[in-house]
Amino acid sequence: MARVRILKMDPHFTPDSSLPSFAQHLAMLDNVLPPDDFARMVGETEELADTERSYLPAHKQGGTAAYETLERKAPGLVALYRSSSLRRLISDIVKLEVAPTPLHDQSSCSVLFYEKPGDHIGWHYDHNFYKGRHFTVLVPIINRGREPNGLSQARLMVRQNKRERVIATPPNAMIVFEGATVRHRVTPIGEGERRVIWSMTFCTDPRNSAFQGVARRVKDTAFFGLRALWT
Ligand SMILES: O=C(O)CCC(=O)C(=O)O
Ligand SMILES: [Fe+2]
Fold first, then answer.
1. Three-state DSSP class for residue 131
2. Cβ distance 5 to 40 under 8 Å?
3. What is d(CA 147, CA 183) in angstroms, rounded to the nearest whole number?
4. Ligand nearest to the CA of 167
5. Which ligand 1 atom minimizes the distance to the CA of 121?
6. Residue 63 three-state SS
7. Which of 48, 68, 108, 191 has a CA 20 to 30 Å removed from the CA of 216?
8. Where exactly are the structural domains of the chain?
9. Residue 1 C-alpha to ligand 1 middle, in angstroms?
10. Domain 26-225 classified CATH 2.60.120.620?
11. Contact present, 141 and 43 (Cβ < 8 Å)
């Protein structure tokens, strides 16, 4: 039985720099969690990966651990997602009051594993199925590989104003972007490399219409069931 370590409910975030501009719908921070809190998150994620591997053969296809799994296996991540300090930090960055999106939305809080050579995500937008504006928040938990800086060769790229840009994703960074307007992809990971990303969404108004609810479920199926994005 895996031991479950609970993160403090409300750790303070300690980014290296003062808050970046969100004028381009995209912002990056480094070293957002205090080292001890981050180390506990890494531990929780390693245990999650171990249990996923032993109980879910489908996991070998690479992919995602969704909210229900995280609630049971990684309660510290879920607590942090719903903490007032994270909500405050994201609201301050995007300069709008945002809230976590509902528990039943698989994209609200998930962990993405890139560990088979070639695992990647093609160009996409993160569709917004809510009434309000919708933001994606990524925290790389593990990123190890054979690049000179020790990171994997999988790169997060964004395309804006017809230009492509590489966004660094070292462990304990935070990338906040408006996924409905910032097209992005992740290039394939190499042999023996590993990249694990904690992906969350926040929204200014997390209500959704009946139609939007149906559309969201179709999207969840694509992302978590059929892995349509993992082609
Ligand atoms: O793994 C990444 O860097 C990006 C994942 C992604 O596109 C998402 O969570 O929306
Ligand atoms: Fe995305």
1. coil
2. yes
3. 25
4. 1
5. 7
6. strand
7. 48
8. 26-225
9. 30
10. yes
11. no
